[in-house]
Each structure stands twice: as C-alpha cells, then as structure tokens.
Amino acid sequence: MPSPDRTPKAAPIPPAGSALILLKINGVDHSLSIDPRTSLLDVLREHLSLTGPKKGCNQGACGACTVLVDGQRVLSCLSLAVQLEGREITTIEGIASGELHRLQVAFIEHDGFQCGYCTPGQICSAMGMFQEFQNGLPSAVTGDMAAARIEFSDAEIKERMSGNLCRCGAYVGICEAIHSAFDREVAK
C-alpha cells in the first residue's frame, strides 16, 4: 500500500498578469484571481455579485460605492482590490445580521431615500461617519475642536455626509434617519 502524499500543496498559480488575492468581505473569505488594476467596486459587483455598492460616477465624486474597510468609509471605485488584502471589508449586504440594522430601519421610517440608488452608500458612509464622530475627529464645521465632546448637530452630519450625493434630494430624511439611529448613543 503506497503511503499518502504529505507534501504541502502549492497555491494555484494565477494566469500571467493576474494576482491571486484573499479578501474578507462581510465576514467571508474570497480567494480571487484578478487583474491587479481591478477596483474593489468591480470585484464586489462583477466577481462576487454583491450589487449593493453602486457604480455612480466611477470617479469618487458621488459616494454611491461607499463601503467600510476596517470600519472606515472608503470609496470602492477608487480602491484597488489588491491593496485591501487582509483587511475587513463590509458592504451594505453585511450590515444587518438577521434583522435590519437600526440605521436601515431609520432610513425607512424617515424616508431617507426615494429611488434608493444611493442608499447603500449613504448607510455605509453614515456608519463610518458616526465612528469618526465617536472617535472625536473634527469636521470642517466643528466649532471648538478642543471641546471634550463635539455636538452631534445637523451641520456636523451634513458636512460629514457631503461626499454622498442623492439625486432625489432626500437629504432631510437622511439627516433625520442618522439622528434617529445614533442620538441615543451620543447621549451616553
């Protein structure tokens, strides 16, 4: 009886000009062979069928493609997928676990969307924005940067969310939804 082959198996060799990468997206590892010039947005949409992040402008100007990378908001159309190996990527599909996240519920309750095209990017951006706020990072409208606590005001929310455009103009509902979802945490 021949002995089993115990030599370690080499990783598959990607085709010439391709890169073999491992991305952790929404808690799941994905091994991909891609062109190293491929944006994270194209990997998400075209290789993994995660269509929540939208290709709005493909220039980083609209925010429709916003995702979270290690909890920070990132424009996936401007990020090369190969640069994000080993980092935790969260798309709108990974926000809820079992039931809608309270921010998603707030968007519904406060009419934070109309056509819905920008909504996944708006929600991911709002989650990253709130983390920035919680970490005490000032914005362009922060009055007293030496203050122990930044006020979670409409002006702060609007400034921090200004990179996410809504063609339908649902900004009032978006701001109300963000307040509704996070005001309790700010009060703590």
From TrEMBL:
A GO term for molecular function: metal ion binding
Signal peptide: none
Keywords from the named record: 2Fe-2S, Iron, Iron-sulfur, Metal-binding, Oxidoreductase, Plasmid
Keyword Iron recorded: yes
Location of the 2Fe-2S ferredoxin-type domain: 19-95
Upper taxonomic lineage: Bacteria, Pseudomonadati, Pseudomonadota, Alphaproteobacteria, Hyphomicrobiales
Keyword Metal-binding: yes
UniProt protein name: Probable oxidoreductase
